[in-house]
Amino acid sequence: MRSDQTATPASYTAPQSFSGLAPGGAAPAVPAARSKAAGPLLAGAAVAMGLMAGLFFAFDVSVMPGLAAGDDRTYVTAMQHINKSIENGMFGLVFVGAFVATGVAAWLQHKAGRRQAALWAAAATVLYVVALLVTMGVNIPLNNQLAAAGDPSQITDFAAVRAKFADTWVPVNMLRTALCTGGLLALTRSLVLHGRAER
């Protein structure tokens, strides 16, 4: 061996990577950022959306048909009591919570890099926003008009009060049911995609 040569120890091998770089020099794939809250929040949004869809559906298939079978006075009186009773904390929590949870869930899915799951959650948010706009633009004003008709003991034309309310409120409530059901289906799809990404 010449003096200008340096022996390489037998135990030494050239490193295959340096600072996380593969032999070819390409950086390894960085996993998408994950949030522990993304999954539970998405599930919570689906539950809240399902509760709202179920509430509107119950009016479609039982409450309104049941009231429609009665007389005008019973219809107006019952709806006045229902509209007053539903203004409670539990309903408000679900009514607003469905919007907040769905919107934040869509944002978290986007932040985690799950594009398809984020798009489905965003679609659910849009559907629910439309349901909110319908509620505030049509159903609530009709509820207020019904309340403004006054105490049943002072109403003289129950048929007119009922017709003015029911002819619009009932079909619009069916629209709310469809919108929230669509939102629930979209969130279900988002949950499936989220679950696949977590595997």
Instruction: Supply Rg.
Output: 29 Å
Q: Which structural category do the helix and sheet elements fall into?
A: mainly alpha
Strand/helix succession: HHHHH
Distance between the termini: 57 Å
Rounded mean pLDDT is 87
Total number of strands: 0
SS element count, helices? 5
Morphology: elongated
Q: Which runs of at least 5 residues are low in confidence (pLDDT < 50)?
A: 10-33
Strand content: under 5%
Instruction: Profile the largest sheet.
Output: none
The percentage helix is over 70%
What is the strand and helix layout of this fold?
Elements: H1 38-68, H2 72-85, H3 89-111, H4 115-148, H5 158-198
Helix pairs in contact: 1-3, 1-5, 2-5, 3-4, 4-5
Describe this structure in words.
- It is a single chain.
- With 199 residues, the chain is mostly helical.
- The protein is built from five helices and no strands.
- Helix 1 runs antiparallel to helix 3, helix 1 runs antiparallel to helix 5 and helix 2 crosses helix 5.
- The longest helix is centred in the last third of the chain and has 41 residues.
- The protein is elongated.
Summary tags:
single chain; 199 residues; mainly alpha
In short:
This protein has 199 residues and is an all-alpha fold.
